[in-house]
Specification:
By secondary structure, the protein is mainly β. The two termini are about 30 Å apart. Strand 46 and strand 47 form a beta hairpin. It has one helix and 55 strands. The radius of gyration is 29 Å and the shape is elongated.
Length: about 675
Amino acid sequence: MNILLYPAPNWYSSSCFDINYYGDSVAVATRNTVTFLETDNGGVIGELKIGGKERITSVRFNSALGLRHILATGSSNGQVRVWDADSRSEIRRLDPLKGYVIKSLEFPPTAPHVLLAGAASSRWKKGSLYSFSLDSDRPEKKELLEGVFETLSAPNERFFRGDGVRVAAATCSSSGYIVVFDVLTGGALASADLDSKSAVTAIEWSPDRNRLLTAQQNCVTVWRLSLENGSLDEMQRLEPSHQLSITKQGAATWTAALWISDTEIVSSTPEHSLAHFRLDELAIGASPEPFLSEDAHGASIFALKLLSSTDEHPTRIISVSMDRTMRSWRLGASGPQLDHTWSNFVAAYITCLDVSHDRNFVSVGVGDGQVCVLSREDRFGAPGASNSFAKRASLKLKKEHATRIQFCPADSGYSSKYALYLAAGTNLGNLYIVQLDLESDELEVASELWTHSTSPRSAVRSLQWERSRASGDDLIFCDGRLVSFNGTETADAPTGINRSTIAFQWTQDMHGSRAAVIESQTREVAVLDWPSLREIYRQPFNASCIDWMRNESTPVLVVGTEEGHVYAIEDLNLPAIADNGPCVRSWRIGGHTLGVRSVAWNRHDTELLLSVSADMTVQVWRIHDHAATPIANLRGHTGQIQVSTWFSQEQVLTGSSDHTLRVWECARQSAKIPPRS
């Protein structure tokens, strides 16, 4: 099973989203990667990685004959690149516009070897529109107009005016200024200054190339181009009707609009749905009553694209929303009708995950600040009857993201049949208890247990929620500190490990309690008696992760290292050490070709060990009598595997930087031999 968690489009801008000429591929800018999706089912068909710290701010396909495989990208550092979208290879890199962000790109079909780029300063106070001539070995850069150009549009074929002037349209979002200009010279041919001074978020030429369509905060407007007097004359203003709600400020929010034909327009609405306007047989200035879609997004729609419109195939429209969904619509007689929802964008890479004790829920921390809970349910809602997962609820943390996450244990005092609780530590050092109401499916922060007081604030690197056998209390260990549920460190527990650690694991058995830590400075592994913190073992591993085997009689600690090795440390029996001195045995289990990122013992079968690595492989071992037998070598991720856990006795759950969450069946894996480290 493979659950794809796609990244979110950058900036929620239509410039970060484009469809190729043939309508079979969608390009979405996601961080420093362009993700290509199929228009039929939304499946990922490829990626184009920029690399480095660049963040892609705009993408655009070339629609000219013979150049339809060409894709241009603009970045937050002013870099413009031209790519072969078929081979995913870079063709050329243009001179960067240092200190600027590329806000918009356009290939005018009338001048296919010219690339237009709207650039704005990092503080958005000034900007310019540039053109690059791509038919030479050294592309020339030319400044055409001054202004912050949010979006660009070009007629879909040559614009004729006797002398064949080639034009494109641009909008200045900061002041509501529209200008039509010559692509080659930059000379203004016509312009309009909006009275409302509201930002223009979309502009598009009509199929007959004589009108423009703009979307603003309070309306959608149709303009007629008059080259004789150099003006844009307002023809029709499509304002909110009685069917559409009005915001508290008294203005609707229109964010996207496009032409379907010379007499039809589709736009987004304040209800996050689509409105279909028919302009035929209407007087100039009249506002027609739209046909509204019955379905709606959960947030504002920021991009609309026309996918197909022919006599043989019905009109299809693609919308992208801030609720991180992409939808396909068919235009019928009664208005837009939802075809299907492609994919749920859950931004960025997976940072942490955990499985509930009944294995019916999975919690995932994502790099954009979301905490998501997935549930395994059959079609009648009975938990545990299906192997498929669905997103149950999500919570967005403000200006931080979860770095460690764990469900409450089965015997916890927080266990309830009406709610599910989990602990989440963040990159700012904060610790939260998060509650999922199983009746309303609402996920919210129930309490804030711990706020990191040091400066600068350090991320939570280890989190463990246990139930004490001695006292029966719930214990939460956060980076070696025992935190109580009133938000402070417990008075009767040690104040914590007096050293900086990157990992902490606590365990209890018939002999007592002990803790294992990885020191951040030396990467050495130390085993301490708890709660006295007496050191009983130390080994100079270059360690990256640790985990205790939950065994009553023989505690075993497994260690993963940055070199890709996996070690087992046995005979950590406290009475034997106290009476006879150290008698610890350590031996190497196996390894990977790159650093080990996570190790985990199977709680259902204590002989099974799981290790995952930056080499994109998952290794399962059976440990018995000081020997390791490889059980499965799981391969399929295309990015570094960051986190892992056991889902059941024979199933493994992994999360990767390739934005996927995967469940593996170990018994069905034929390849067993691990890669050599």
